[in-house]
Amino acid sequence: MTSPKLSRVHFIAALLGVSVMISSTSADAARDASVEAYVQTNASQALRTLGDDSLSDANRQQTFNTLVSQFSDIESTAQYVLGSYAPQVWRDPTLRGEWITSFKDFLIATYEDQLDQFSGGQVAVTGSTVLNSRVIVNSQLTPPGSRPLQVQWKLQRDAGNWRVFDIALQSGENVVWLAQQQQLVFRDQLANNHGSIPDLIRQLNQTTAQLYAHARSTHRH
Amino acid sequence: MYGVNDAADKAVVEPVARGYRAATPRFVRTGVANFLNNLGAPVTFVNDLLQGQVSRAGVTAARLGINSTLGFFGLLDPASDFGFERHEEDFGQTLAVWGLRSGPYLFVPLIGPTTIRDGAGRIIDLAFDPLNWARFHHDDQVRAARIVIGAISAREELLDPVDALRRTSIDPYATVRATYQLTRESEILNGVVDDEEVPSSDPVAEPNPSAGAAAPGTEATPNPQPSLSGAQKPPQNTTGSTPSGDKK
Question: Is the ipTM of this complex over 0.90?
Fold first, then answer.
């Protein structure tokens, strides 16, 4: 008795069978619909703002700045990125205020730079994962005429309200969170400048100015 | 070393990648990238198995089978449409899963950021790649073409991220290093989301323990960051975020 040859159709059917078995083993994670809606609304508004040609550069920047300030827990992020240097800065109210202001400007300019590629595009929240005290919201941002990119938003409660603590652009299954990256970079800088926060603030301010100069040079206005 | 590499990139590699982008429609570049990814599937498959990731090895095998047939020798990626999402594994990741620490960070000209462990892993991966030991007509030329086209395709895909990095970074070298570290961390953990502690609202009273022990204002001691050390386990998740199957 001869066994039938494995045809291409049988082969593909077998592979699809493996697919079903594999997919059935994964569990659905807990989701938070209200946080998903919050991200959907605010992220959409941010992209609309960046793509709004009726606004002047100054107005667009101001509107985006206000939106991000409301949407983000910038003070917590400003503290997190300092790592072990945070206590030193937080003990000094003047330095703390200077750091938060400088970091806030830098973060908003970075968000604007990173999100500008999606301006006028679409946001589609695709799910979320509830962690201990945070929610990770998954979304697809689709720039006009281009492929969607996966963006994750990490939110935590700030005075009872959900706020964005960190953002990650996802590549495949790999995720690099912006605040984690900034913490490593700032740590390197502080290691090289003998822990001088004022020097780091100067570097941040310089980069922020360059980002806004770049934004002005590339906008269509 | 980074400066030399950056200068060479700006002078040669980046312009070639921009030329490739300008001269080819997107579907062609996507097809090239798909084809090259498909050629790399055997390496991922072997490393999936070496890491004990049987279900992920099944996904890789399914992708290879589907894309090599329905996908016209890998030019298309119908496997993703069937739910077989692409992932990459290499021997550097396998060594990490086996518990080997990363060793020093290196920046190698024309290769980029790596570590002793990951660099050694690259060499071992060459042995897992059938194209490197198969004998056929013009095999050396084919292998050389694959390296050159692969480098151009990879750089083209990185054009926008590298541009953004150069704009938004206060120190591109440190940012490349941090990005490499975090990306490898994510790759080793197969993208499992982390759930590091929320920073204290009063860091003076209660410093963030995850932020390292260096005394502020003194010469910094490296934080116990994701250190590319081996044998790392995914951070604990509570509700949800359950790693599927046999994730590391």
Answer: no
